[in-house]
Write a structure and sequence with these properties.
single chain, alpha/beta, Protein-Tyrosine Phosphatase, Chain A, 6-stranded mixed β-sheet, two-stranded antiparallel ribbon, 8 strands, 25% helix
Amino acid sequence: MRLHDNTDQSVRRVIHCVGAERIGTVSALCQPEKAMDFIVQDRHSVEKGILVRSSYVVISIRDPDKRKVRIRKQSGLRDSLHLAFHDADPTSTLVLPHGIRLMTVEHAKKIWQFVRKWDGKVGAIVVHCEQGMSRSPAVAAALCKAFGGDESPFFRDYQPNRHVYRLMLASRSEGEGKGGG
């Protein structure tokens, strides 16, 4: 896996995940002969428009009280998945305020089903959240790890939400065989 920084007005990091692992019964997006790009972005950059040099899909994560993100229709865009949950990580010592919506197993299953649906059909997965620092890198790191890649750049360069990361890995097999492929 290689980390590239591309700078226009904002910094964009592209993680190339190369691995031969399989996800369920569908071959992984990352295969030795073809790398999968995981692009982590923030809401503003996605709404402004992003340049992806291959076909791609978007996993859009927003706060529940925010409007749905307007993703610009560009030539390589194939599909998008929209989810809403807060950037919160429950702990045994912290009581979360009323009204906080955590990522659920159902959210994780939807992501896995979406990724399986586009397996082998796109060259990149763009994952964004409000700031592009916690929820989206957690999802991208879990996907990269599941594909046999090295997720450490996500932990080095971002602050992935540990709850989101753990839930994605734990839900990997639960989303198999539904809604995709």
